[in-house]
Automatic annotation (TrEMBL):
Residues 18-229 form the MacB-like periplasmic core domain. The chain crosses the membrane at residues 20-38, 260-281, 287-305, 312-335, 347-368. This is ABC transporter permease. It comes from Lysobacter yananisis. InterPro entries: ABC-4/HrtB_transporter (IPR051125), ABC3_permease_C (IPR003838), MacB_PCD (IPR025857). It is found in: Cell membrane. The keyword Membrane applies. Keywords: Cell membrane, Membrane, Transmembrane, Transmembrane helix. The keyword Zinc-finger does not apply. It holds the Pfam family MacB_PCD. Residues 263-374 form the ABC3 transporter permease C-terminal domain. It is a multi-pass membrane protein.
Amino acid sequence: MNHLLLIWKGLWRKPVRTALTFASMTVAFLLFGLLNGINQGLDHVTERFHLDRLYVMNRISMYHPLILPFAQQVEKIPGVEDVAYWAYFVGYYQRPTVQLPIVAADVPRMFRMYPELKLPRSQLQTMGIVKSGAVISKSLAKRFGWKIGDRVPIKSAIWPRKDGGDIWYFDIVGIYEPAEASPALNDLFFVNLDYFDEARAFGAGQVHLMIVRVNDEKRSGAIAQAIDKLAENSPLQTRTRTENAYAAVQWRQINDLRTVGNFIIGAVLFTLLVVSASTMMQSVRQRFAELAVLMTLGFTPARIAGLILGEALLLSLMAAVAGFGLAALAFPAVAELFGAMRMQPSVFVGGLAIALGIALVSALLPIVRAMRFSLVAALSGR
């Protein structure tokens, strides 16, 4: 207990300096926790992609159309178990800046294709009855305060109605729970493709993406080639990718951000080391006389080294706990930008290991310095 008291007193010998150092290190650990949490969260999500799901789109781009009869041909390919599809509905709510991720789909097919998305059966059945129905994500409902029974007006500059209007009205009949393994689907606004086709002024029967489930993921590559071969003599040629390959295209910018994040994490760790080492060097240099007194009282060099190391460990671990605690609180809000994901336990374990490493490295030079100073010179104030 006496040693712990000495460590605590030594750490707070200069309270302002210690407080500023603690605050700096806490912010650094906060940034490290958030950035590393996002990186590992994305890695965790990509590991859970379904290799038995293929994504078929127009070879030119995902915004060029495919036709529904092609989906019927794909269903006949040996090894294909199910096919779903959607068309992009580009629209906004109230203001042009509030763009919504709306897709027109055969909704029962979509939720059959993605069983990880949870929607009550009664709400799915209602979607089949109400033509103007919509199923939205829980996060969209929370964002706009929508609830089941609300009628939402959506304006589209791309898809006019046959009656000449550009405002579409959708009735919310269901709210689905997001899935960690499908972040791209966690904020969608599903509407009925049949209703969309009947009402839009042009483009009926066109979709922009087809999702194909195969009965054996080992045959995914061969079936993808078969799908593209089926369309090779068509004016609407296709490009088929597995789910993880499709996500890689969708997340190209996110992957770039991940690279930038790794550089920032490296800078944060370097800053942590410099701040901690600088604080410990100043603390030990200013306390040579006190350390000399302790030696005259019987403290061995090993015990002095233990006190210095204890101060470095205490400061680093306190800052790490505070920083990662704040990161855990802030992470859900930050993670919403990338979809539903949780901070992985490895972030905390790895972060605490790094905190220990920083403490050890930052205490090394002060310990060496303390072991080499002159006892006589220190006691005489030189």
